[in-house]
Every structure is written in C-alpha cells, then in structure tokens.
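Supplementary notes for students who missed Thursday's class. We covered one full example, reproduced here. Read the sequence, then the structure, then the short commentary at the end.
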Amino acid sequence: MRPSVPVLCLSSLTLLLQACQEPQEAGEAPVATAASTMAAAPDTGLVPPNFDTFDLPFDRLPGGRMGADGNLDPMSSPEDAHAGAFVAAERLNLFGNFEWVHWMPTAPSTQDPETGAWSGGDLDGFPTGWGSTGLGITGDCLYWGRSNSTNTTGPGVTHDVRIYRIQDDPEANPPELVGTMPQITVDDGQTAVRDRELRPYIYTDSAGNDRALMVRSAATGTGGDVITYTMDPETCLPTDAGFTAEGVLAHELYLWHDPVNPNRLLVISQTYGSQPEDLVITAITDENTGAVLEEPVNLAAYRIEAVGGPLRNQLPDENGLYPDGKFAEFSEQTDQWGRPGAAQAVQVNNLHSGSLSDDGERFYVAGGTAGFWILDTEFIAQNSNADIIAGNVCNRGSTNVWQGGEIGTLVDVNRLPDVANDCIHPVLNSDPAVLSMLTNPALSDTAKLVNYTRLEERSRFDIAPPMVALAGVHSAVPVPNRPSLTDGNQSRRPAYVLITEEWPFGPCPERGMRMISVESEINPVMIGAHAMSDSLPENCLAQPQPPGSTIRPMMHAHNPTVLENIAFVNWQGHGVRAIDISHPFNPREVGHARPIPWGDVMTYPDFHKGLMYVGDNHSGLHVLKYTGPRADEIPAEVYSSNRTSPHR
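Structure (token representation):
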C-alpha cells in the first residue's frame, strides 16, 4: 500500500491549500476546487458588444506538468501540479464568463524513481485515452469512461469506468467516487476497449416502479458493442453484467424514451461504417414491463447507399474529381509541428452521429462527408415494437432502389416511391410533392430521375467541397423551443439545427460550427457560422507549439449542447465555447473555458443543477459554471443535448 496524501481544495484568490474530503493514494491527482476571479458579464440576456472570440495564447500555454507557480515543472508534487494549473489558467485568462469549479484527474502519473520526474498522467497533459467520450449523468449519478488505446496508455493498461455521486452542495464539494465498472478486454487480454459512449437514464415504468439503466458502447475501434446494464438508482452501481445487442456496432448512439409508453426505450446506433447499415434502432426494454431485455431486439435499419444516396468510400478520378466536386488541397503546406496540411484521399460518406426528436418522428443526421439531412422515423414512433417486428407496419430495412440490386449502377425510378414505406427513410422520400412527381404518368423515367437526383442532392446540406474533411459533419442538434413558423407545422418541428464539423487528426485548417435552417425539411440551408481564428489556414499553419508539449491535440468543433439561445460547444484544443445563437444568422462567442495542460475537451457538456460537466482526453473530468449572458437558460436539473430524449 502506498502512503496516502490529502485531497485538496483550492481558493481562487489566495490559492491557499487546505485539507478536505477523503485521502487518495500517493501518485494520484488530488481533487480540488477553484472559482475563477474573472468578472462575469451582467446577465442581461444580450450579447456584450465588447466580447469577442478568445484566441488562445499557444506560445505561452504550459504543455505539460506545472509547479505551484503555474510554470512547467516535471518534478512537482501532485498537489503543486494541480494547484499550478489554476494559477496558469487565471494568468492566461483562459476562463471568461466561466468558473473552473472542480478538476478531477482520473489517470495517475508515474514518478521516475531515479530522476523524480512525473509523466504519463492527467496532471502531465498526457493523452491518457484518445476519444474519452464516455460521460453521462442521470439523477445524481455520474459515469466517466476512458479510452484505452494502446498507442497512448500502452498494452495491458486499462482505465475502468468510474462511477461518481454528485453531492448535495456540488459547488463546494466535487463528485464522490462510489465505485467502478471493470474495463473490458479483447481476447489477448492486453487490449482494453474504448468506452466511447455511456448513456445512463432513470425512468418510472407503467406500474410505478423506479428503474435505471445504462447503455455502453464498448469499442476497440470505430464501432463498439452496444451493452445495456440494469442500474441501481440509489447506489448508481450496475446490478448485472449487461446484455449485448447482437449485430450492432455503434460509433455513437442516442437513447430515446417513448413519451407515450413509459416502458419503451430504444437505442439509435450510428455505425460510422463499422457495418453495412448506417443506422440501427434497437429495443432495449420490454415495452410491456419496462425491464431491460436480456436479448435486445433490432427493430429497423437504414442504409443511405441502398436508397440512392452517396456511396461509401468514394475515390477521385485521375484528375482529383469526386462525385461531390474537387476538394481544397493543403498538403504542400507545413504547420509548426512539421505536419502537412489537410488533404482528401477518400470521401467516406459514413453516417457519424445525430439526434432524435422528443416525439421520435425525426432523426437529424450528421452524415460525415455526405452532409446533413433529416430522416422520417414516424413508423418507429407511432407503432409498437411487436407490430414493427411482425412486419405489419413498414419495411424494416432500406429499399434497394438500384437496378438489379447492384448498388452504384443506375437507380430504378420505379422503385423510389417504395422508400416511403421503409421504417426509416429520408423525409424527401415521403414528401407528398416528391411522391406526386415520382408517380406522375406524364413524366418520363428520365425526367423523374433528373428531378429526383437534383432534389436528393439539395435534401442534404453537403459541405464537402471545398473543405477537406475525413469525418465531415460530426454532430447535428436541433435548437429547442424555437419551432418553425412555416405553414402546417402542427408538430412544432424546429426551425434550426446546429451542426459541427470534424477533422479528427488535426491537420490544418480547423473545422467550425454552422447554423442550418430546416424550415423546409427537404432543403436545409446554412444561415450562419462560427469558427476559431485557426480555421483560417494561414493562422492554423502558424499556430505555435506550446512550451513543453509533445503532442498537438485535435482542433475542431466537436459536440454541442444546444439551448434555446445559447450553445455550449466542446471545441477540441480550445476547451468549451459558449456561443450566443439568439440571432442564428450571426452566432457570437460569449464565453470560453479552456482547462490546462491541454483542453482537448471531447464530450457533450452535461448539466446538473446549473453546473457543467465535461471530459478532457488529456486531463480528466472538469466541472464548470457558466456565468455570462443567458446564464438564466442553464437547466435547473439534468440536461444532456445529444444523449437522451427527453434530455435527462
């Protein structure tokens, strides 16, 4: 047993250290509290005229372990390294209209017995897991999972899922560790999976029983098994070993609770090319009792290729021409890290992520380099699992519209109307005007195909050319409580959707966020955008290497939590950015929070009683408080923008 060191609290003005909470083992990071001393803008509900996008001082950012004075010091103790981060953050103005409430490093550093230097942990800004997206909150239970990529943690090194309970006074007291869930390893026993998605949820079934579950996507690569656990809402701990949805490999997933049937919960898995289907909808609870199913049932699937959309893994011709056009090319440029600029080798066209509406009738697709579009899921929402499985409601797969069934040849226009009978299909295919055109006997098949091809292309907001994008559209989240004012919108469909773009491995230029009007669902249109200055190639290429750093994080907008007038975007390499979207044509930054040593924030910001919880690939779990304009919109209870619907 190693000797213990006290967990520490940190006062932001005096930076006085005082003992609090329970002890931890030596070599592990202490839990600490800090409140930023920066003045918060008055909450007037208006964008302050003097607030602008904050550019990070990369040439002064500590890129590794710090001492208590906020300067680089690989020899500093865990206490000093932790305290020094708050000192450096305040000195560099890294928190504007945010307070850094708690920092909980979750991967310990290792001390060299000969030199005394520390390395390899969250206090050092080491990449202790690429893609640590496993963060979820329900009730007072918080779940935190890490990636276990062997190129960062090393063979045989695992990070179990940590289970925390959020305490009664969460600003004064950091979440308390109450247990863990064992990490999963593959057959060699050395390679642990990547806990990229954790979706916990508390619900009450039709008999009045309080239940809890958690959906876990456990992956060794792009896609992972979808495993559902029964959880104890009192202890936050699992009560079983989990049940796997056979035949589903999810890159990301969405958990939906039927507003009509409290027993019915579905998982919408986005596979990102890990299997032929782009989207799979799975029943994970018994729709009659609400209990977790030991054998989850796949209800329906969707494949964009099959219905005549873009093909996967499209290659350019000898002139660099793709079906989408020609991409900008930056490979002859070199950044300060010696890396070439971005270039496009293949247009993958994989469905990456998305959001299901609360009523379950629309899925907003983040479709990678195929763009953004909307799927009609009314058959799923309006019918029981039993009726869907029986095949009496809709076609559970995607209609193959290609002549002879050979994808990529020539579309058979006479099969296109059948797509409207698929359980999941693009809104384009069930639009009455489109169906009327496709069944019009006065039009030739050639005219129908030409018209449909144009409409299909316009039904997807495709940002691929001229920007290079390996992943493309990463996330798509509707703006809540702002329905379209168009005629016939009895279902109160949203007027706007916020999308983000990803280039996952960091070559210049960066990617930003865009505001999309979906007032015409079959013709999404970009109306506004926001980006960091490094989205300009010349700025990105000139971005200096932070002192002491050995890695450059990914640099792009990633996961947004979207409220009515403000969005909180986890911007990798830039921390969290608060963007006022009240005027969707002119989004403006109104706050920034950039933890150090890195700030490679990847998770969706989750709210709990007014505080924000985010995960950083390089420094663990952070608790923030937004204090700027429109802070009154912060949800009072649990809210997660893209994890569950309803958002709790």
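Commentary. Residues 1-45 have pLDDT under 50 and may be disordered. The CA atoms of residues 206 and 262 lie 6 Å apart. If anything here is unclear, bring it to office hours.
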